[in-house]
Amino acid sequence: MSPLPTTIPELVRTRIRAAVRRPARLTPEETEARVLLLRMCSLLLQYPDAELAAARPVLTATVEALPPSPAAEHLAGFAAWFAGQDLESLERHYVEMFDLRRKSSLYLTYYLHGDTRRRGMALLTLNQRYRAAGWETDGGELPDHLPVVLEFAALAGPGGGEAPLRQHRRGLELIHRALTDSGSPYRHVLAALLTLLPPPTEADRAAVDQLVAEGPPNEEVGLDPYGTYGEGEFAPPGAFVPPAPAEPTRVPPAPTSRTEGPR
């Protein structure tokens, strides 16, 4: 899209940009297929426990039955790998990619706000959005965990439901880039999701490059003495683990009788 003339009032330019980036109206069939794609991405990005692993035949069949699209093609690539791994390998790979790799964490507000006070407000706002739509999460994950955000998008629809995904598009781009650099098959799931969002702008690409180079915002709360988190990487949410608490002080047993005095 060519730059808008600067003579147009800022409010009008903003509305034009919003209209250009807003999802097109979908037919009922397209909406149904989109909901299924979002739910599949949500499922496939969850921890591969025994229950999810046992459902692989159903997941693979569902992916194969998706209407042809770039997103369906990406998911088919992931499903083929997912179906052929043993449970231990799946669990190990998931932990390595999403729990131990700083640039592919699934907590979206971290990429936008880092470990700052603004992140807490963003989490609260996201929870309020869910409740306003009549959806209560089970509390097992933070509201910005990508599978949770995807499930909300599937439930609430392309407009307001997908707004958090559009808001955190740069974080999603960063996760996809990190997974691609690592050669992880999970890159296919992120690629499928990104095909459902508006194309990135030049500003988006520049912001992702800056995130790669510098990491998210940081309030400098004095954790430097605890060391760095790896060359070229930044700390994920909850990366700092406090030391184990000291053993409780042992208190001598109380006298057995209240009337018994010192001897």
What does this structure look like?
It comes from Streptomyces populi. Keywords: Nitrate assimilation. GO terms for molecular function: metallochaperone activity; unfolded protein binding. Residues 215-263 are annotated as: Disordered. Residues 239-255 have a biased composition (Pro residues). The protein is 54% helix and 0% strand. The termini are far apart. The longest helix is centred in the first third of the chain and has 17 residues, at 28-44. Helix 2 packs antiparallel against helix 9, helix 2 (28-44) packs antiparallel against helix 12 (187-194) and helix 11 (169-182) packs across helix 13 (202-214). The chain is globular, with a radius of gyration of 23 Å. It has helices at 10-21, 28-44, 50-54, 56-64, 70-83, 87-99, 108-113, 117-132, 146-156, 163-167, 169-182, 187-194, 202-214. The chain has one domain: TorD-like (Orthogonal Bundle). Mean pLDDT is 79; it is low at 1-9, 11-22 and 220-263. It has 263 residues and is mainly alpha-helical. The chain is built from 13 helices and no strands.
Topology:
Elements lengths: L9 H12 L6 H17 L5 H5 L1 H9 L5 H14 L3 H13 L8 H6 L3 H16 L13 H11 L6 H5 L1 H14 L4 H8 L7 H13 L49
Helix pairs in contact: 2-9, 2-12, 4-5, 5-12, 11-12, 11-13
User: What structural class do you assign from the helix and strand content?
Assistant: mainly alpha
Overall spatial form: globular
How many strand units?
Answer: 0
Q: What's the structural domain tally? A: 1
CA-CA gap between termini: 93 Å
The helix tally amounts to 13
Q: Give me the CATH architecture, please.
A: Orthogonal Bundle
As a percent range, the share of helical residues equals 40-55%
CATH class: Mainly Alpha
CATH fold-level topology:
TorD-like
Alpha-carbon Rg, integer: 23 Å
Major β-sheet annotation: none
Bin the strand percentage: under 5%
Tell me, rounded to a whole number, the average pLDDT.
Answer: 79
* Helix/strand order, N-terminal first: HHHHHHHHHHHHH
In the predicted model, the low-confidence regions spanning at least 5 consecutive residues are 1-9, 11-22, 220-263
